[in-house]
Amino acid sequence: MLKTFLITALCCGDIFMPKTSNKFKEIKSARNFLDPHFTEGHKGIVQLFEWKWNDIASECETFLSLMGYGGVQISPPNENVIIYNRPWYERYQPISYLIKTRSGDEKSFLDMTQRCNKVGVRIYVDVVINHMAADQPSKTAVGTGGSNAKPDIRDYPFVPYNVTNFHPPCPLIDFNDRYQVRNCELVGLHDLNQTIEDTRNKIVGYLNHLIDLGVAGFRVDAAKHIWPNDLQIIYNRLNFLNTSFGFDARLNPFIYQEVFDSGNEAVSKFEYTFAAVTEFRYALELARSFTRNDQLKWLSGFGGKWGLLPSKYAVVFINNHDTQRSGGVLTYKNGKSFIMAQAFSLSHPFGTKRIMSSFDFDKVEEGPPNDGKENILSPTFDENGQCNNGWVCEHRWPQIASMVEFMNVVDGENITTWWDNGSNQIAFSRGSKGFIVFNLETDSMKDVLIQTSLKSGIYCDVASGRKTSNNSCSGKKLIVSSEGLISIDLQSDDLNGFIAIHTKQKLD
């Protein structure tokens, strides 16, 4: 995890690298951790950052399952240290592996996994296994579950860990030194030594307990700071998923690892392909494209040739809880350009998609909406189903939720009939199932004729509306001719900047 006060140092050296081809050597695992176990008709992950377990359970039942979301990445569920003013990053400072945080206890956690799995939505846990809590102003740190620890002497009795479970402290990390990156303390967070058998066993025990509680996999925080060999040993000791929650027998958990690599790092994301990896450069490049720092036409070859991971290993996103606070990416605060980039991501076949669902913030350290007494507030919803109470909920924005449906409909189809105007207007089909067009020019598109791979008929644009119960459309209607041609009118000041159609929203 990139701590707020050190994000710039970690992520902003040579952010936008030229598009280069990397030699890729597949690092295989004894087991396959690449399958997210999505249920039929469900794809993609939403990061419900800092949501409470009971609210996630309700969201699975009332919205996510209905809109085709595949799973939820939840915030770390283990006991964390309580920090003054309750900043978001306290969740990334463990003092035990008890399931007790401001999001809920183990009972409500189990209720969440049962309810979400029942409606076909998987749960992926953000696990913090690189480190434990940093020193606190008081020698004794107090946790969200009532446990105490003494970080200054590496004493975490409710795991238990002591000084023998940690790497010795060392000066500030030289990020050009791969050994320091993996053996030294990240911004004062006491660095666990996963080569120690006792440390491994306790981490494995924690992860297996979560598997017993019905999760489908893990996002491994700060994996870049752990030796790949130690991670492989830990992963290969994990249990199969719990069949009591509807999983088939002998399924491995889905594992995706946080490895920030802009393309010029001492530690490479390519060292971690024994499981999936978070592809940070994806977000950086799309931010560059959708802010006109690079032309959209170049996205015709977007993927591995740009120095990205092979698609099957990549978990991709427009932003996450760290990067939306550090700059260089698009967030909910960027409006139209963010919506366009998210729509491109969901329409494009590369990678496993993850959508950030935020709470509103002005200061980078701000924690989630609360009642002033340290209790997290639940989101409330307006008459249009949009979030209030301090929550942004990008996953509920109509343009994004509709594009999740698009992603599900076109799943398995390659890009066909690519078109561009030589600059910032692009379009492509996903086989015979979907078509999308973007206009990032200052000039409007008027009666632009584009070849698609779709069957003839009338389609409803999901960027501006939906098919209604009487087989009409609440947004724009588009006609595909018998030759597969479509005439596009897309104004430069269009609210969304894109038009998307697919077979599920066909009107005849």
UniProtKB/TrEMBL annotation:
Its EC number is 3.2.1.1. One of its GO terms (molecular function) is metal ion binding. Residues 416-506 form the Alpha-amylase C-terminal domain. It comes from the Eukaryota. It is an enzyme of class 3 (hydrolase). Residues 43-407 form the Glycosyl hydrolase family 13 catalytic domain. SUPFAM superfamilies: (Trans)glycosidases (SSF51445), Glycosyl hydrolase domain (SSF51011). Pfam families: Alpha-amylase, Alpha-amylase_C. Gene3D superfamilies: Glycosidases (3.20.20.80), Golgi alpha-mannosidase II (2.60.40.1180). InterPro entries: A-amylase/branching_C (IPR006048), A-amylase_C (IPR031319), Alpha_amylase (IPR006046), GH (IPR017853), GH13_cat_dom (IPR006047), Glyco_hydro_b (IPR013780). GO terms for biological process: carbohydrate metabolic process. SMART domains: Aamy, Aamy_C. Keywords: Calcium, Carbohydrate metabolism, Chloride, Disulfide bond, Glycosidase, Hydrolase, Metal-binding, Signal. Its cofactor is chloride; Ca(2+). It catalyses: Endohydrolysis of (1->4)-alpha-D-glucosidic linkages in polysaccharides containing three or more (1->4)-alpha-linked D-glucose units. Belongs to the glycosyl hydrolase 13 family. Monomer. This is Alpha-amylase. It comes from Clunio marinus.
